[in-house]
Design a protein that fits this description.
The structure is a single chain. The chain is mainly alpha-helical. It has 2 domains: 75 residues, no CATH class; 86 residues, LysM domain (Membrane-bound Lytic Murein Transglycosylase D, Chain A, Roll). The protein contains 8 helices and 2 strands. It has a two-stranded antiparallel ribbon with strand order 1-2. The longest helix has 33 residues.
């Protein structure tokens, strides 16, 4: 074989080797980055689980905050998408809301018992009855929160229900109206507080559907 032919074959061999190596390097999969490994981390799962437990306790007491469950769902979506830092932050926010709600329940229960006591033999806490005359600037929330009434603004639905004959819209009352401040059992108080916290959006001059459902209870 001539020298020129040997050189030609050697060049072809080197070229083929380079092409093969090039193809091999191009088909090698790149290692997955942390962001590409979508899914909840163990820390995110634990944070969401803890938030759900605390929410269940607040719900059992009837003191669930309106947006806590929604925040937990957002945390689950973030975890599923692999955004675990966001998921943990949202779960912790929801857990704190439930902690605050539970603390509020115990604080209000203690204050209620210190003020009114517990009715023996029934297991029900009773509030004092009376009347209240509306003045300019009043609303049911503020009236219920007065120390001379219930000392808890969330109990305003009790006044609304007892005076439904003269309160058409819970958000619209008038100076000079005289409202009965009713006695209430523990179950009635719990139902009123639950409605106040989960009532939803409202508009002046409109009777909300949730208010109608509460009155029908």
């Amino acid at each position: 074989m001539k020298k020129t032919e040997l050189l030609k074959f050697a060049a072809i061999a080197l070229l083929s080797t380079g092409l093969i190596a090039g193809c091999a390097s191009e088909t090698q999969p790149a290692p997955a980055t942390e962001t590409e490994q979508a899914g909840p981390s163990a820390a995110a799962k634990n944070a969401i689980y803890s938030a759900k437990l605390k929410l269940a306790r607040a719900q059992k007491l009837g003191y669930e905050w309106r947006d806590t469950a929604k925040i937990i769902k957002e945390a689950e979506k973030a975890a599923a998408a692999g955004d675990n830092d966001k998921a943990i932050a949202l779960a912790n926010k929801a857990a704190k809301q439930s902690d605050d709600a539970i603390a509020q329940y115990h604080s209000e229960t203690k204050r209620f018992n210190e003020r009114f006591g517990t009715v023996s033999g029934t297991g029900s806490m009773m509030t004092s009855a009376g009347e209240y005359t509306v003045v300019r600037g009043d609303n049911l929330w503020d009236i219920s929160g007065k120390d001379s009434i219930y000392g808890n603004p969330y109990q305003w639905p009790l006044i609304y229900k007892a005076n439904a004959d003269q309160i058409k819209d819970a958000d619209l009352i008038y100076p000079g109206q005289v409202f009965e401040i009713p006695n209430a059992s523990a179950s009635e108080i719990d139902a009123a507080i639950q409605h106040a916290k989960t009532r939803g959006a409202w508009s002046i001059g409109v009777v909300e559907e949730s208010d109608k459902q509460y009155l029908a209870q």
